[in-house]
Amino acid sequence: MSALFDYPRKALFGRVLPKNKIYEYAGPSTAMKELFVRQVDQITWKYKLAPETINVPAARAVPEIQVFGVTLKTGELKEDVLRCIDKAIPFPIIYEISHAGKCRAVAAYKRPSDADSAKWVVSSYFETDWLPEDTVRKALPITLDLGALYEELLAPLMPYPPKAGERLQQRVERAEAIRSQQQELAKTEARLGKEKQFNRKVEINAEIRTMKQQLETLTGADSAGESQ
Fold this sequence. Notes:
This protein has helices at about 20-25, 30-40, 50-55, 80-90, 145-155, 170-195, 200-220; strands at about 5, 10-15, 40-50, 65-70, 95-100, 100-110, 120-125, 130, 140. By secondary structure, the protein is α+β, with helices and mostly antiparallel strands. Helix 1 (about 20-25) crosses helix 4 and helix 6 packs antiparallel against helix 7.
């Protein structure tokens, strides 16, 4: 399913966003500024999805949605760069990353903090594969409010299909748990490869089996395919 949408012309914003404006509001370190310089060619504020531009009511947690274009210098982009932009802009953002005639959609799930509504909680980032820039875009979904539209824009970026009754925040949290578990599994398998003692190998193998079972539960995978 494509994650590139045909945003309405009336929502076009089309302004270049200078990097120093990001620095002004996000307060990045010198190392972060250097990362921007190395990796980012240009940031464009492409679209503003708001009640006055697309005639869709705001939601409490989603007053507007911004669409940013980020043109890269080399094709590499660290997640920290996007996190810095998200820190500077107090609205949910959908990124369209471009390089060498290809484009991919990237976004984190961004919501107001339960403890302080003036602050935003930003999840891990999810992304599509690279697609040709001339890929046919799909029409913007018709929704009751911007909160529902935000869910529709993020859904194609999610790496796993939703479980029955699962809301977007739960789906994001499950995807983050899967990512974390996969990292731990890789570390444990690396430990197994280095271990020389037979008894320890048995113990680590048991850990690996448990971790794989937990992953199958999180992903909804069929346990029949479990390794022995």
